[in-house]
# Entry
Amino acid sequence: MHRVEATIFAASEPVGRETLARIVGKSCSVDLLIDDIREELRGRPYDLVAVAGGWKHLTRPAYADAIRRAVGGNERAADLTQSEVLVLMCIGYFQPITRAELSSFFGKEISRDFIGHLRGAGLIASGPRSPTPGAPYTYVTTKEFLLEFGLDTLRDLPDFQALEDAGLLSKERLLAGDTMPELAGAHQNAGVDMDE
# Structure
């Protein structure tokens, strides 16, 4: 158990199941070890969190503001504009998606510079070419996107249909530029990376 915890603590990226299995042997249950470690961390200001296909030590969300005030931290998500969060949300839900499809969804042009900024931040990448005429590039989210928003996989995104049914999300509200605080503030629910 201590070897697993030490490996995760020392790693700068989330540590996957395969890596942990090499450390403890394939006959050992990684999930049970993770559960035991998380139990030992109960009540501590940090936890072991499943994110981006692996595990990582993150501070608990209740301490994020105090940590940022004291030592700073990753401000990338906090620096995203409302428009960038909305476009990222659409790419997350509808990937792979072309720039033209994004522009159509929002009813206004999504510029190459806008996409370039999200790519430069490492939150999106080029996906497969679209089968539509001209074979335009598509865009997909990245591992950095998962890390930034504290998601293990894209399946952890809130259920789109349930959000629509609950009245929390609608295309009309998106087009009007009315962000839903529940979604736009989702990055604030992710803990602070212990390595920052």
